[in-house]
């Protein structure tokens, strides 16, 4: 599958997608670690949080920034929409908005 389609399939295939360095269990960078931690603390269960390790997928690392128009990692998508990176995710976490967004994705 061409890289753009593969990235689009990842983004649309799960309610919450985190493109990060490492994994939520073993993050390889502080920005990715903080973002995954905020998602977990805001109530994302590991079944709904789909993560892509860009260190193991250089094609995604090279191409996602020009598709999403966001230059760095991590990149958080909820319901197919780019939310942002670490700074924005932390702001949403601290205001309580992240927990609300996550709860909405996990409604029965
Ligand atoms: N202020 C950014 C910090 C993220 C950042 O600076 N990431 C860098 C270092 S991990 C990055 O992804 N650089 C491009 C790359 O490594 O491909 C945020 O809020 O997410
Ligand atoms: S890998 Fe060095 S700052 Fe993220």
From TrEMBL:
Residues annotated as domain Glutaredoxin: 16-83
Keywords: 2Fe-2S, Iron, Iron-sulfur, Metal-binding, Redox-active center
InterPro entries named in the record: Glutaredoxin, GRX_PICOT-like, Monothiol_GRX, Monothiol_GRX-rel, Thioredoxin-like_sf
Domain of life: Bacteria
Pfam families: Glutaredoxin
Family stated for the protein in its record: Belongs to the glutaredoxin family. Monothiol subfamily.
Designated name of the protein: Glutaredoxin
Organism: Luteimonas terricola
């Amino acid at each position: 599958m061409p890289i753009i389609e593969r990235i689009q399939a990842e983004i649309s295939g799960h309610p919450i997608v985190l493109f990060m360095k490492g994994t939520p269990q073993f993050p390889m960078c502080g920005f990715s670690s903080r973002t995954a931690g905020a998602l977990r603390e805001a109530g994302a269960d590991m079944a709904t949080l789909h993560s892509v390790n860009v260190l193991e997928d250089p094609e995604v690392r090279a191409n996602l920034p020009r598709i999403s128009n966001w230059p760095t990692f991590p990149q958080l998508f909820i319901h197919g929409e780019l939310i942002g990176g670490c700074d924005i995710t932390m702001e949403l976490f601290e205001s309580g908005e992240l927990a609300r967004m996550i709860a909405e994705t996990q409604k029965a």
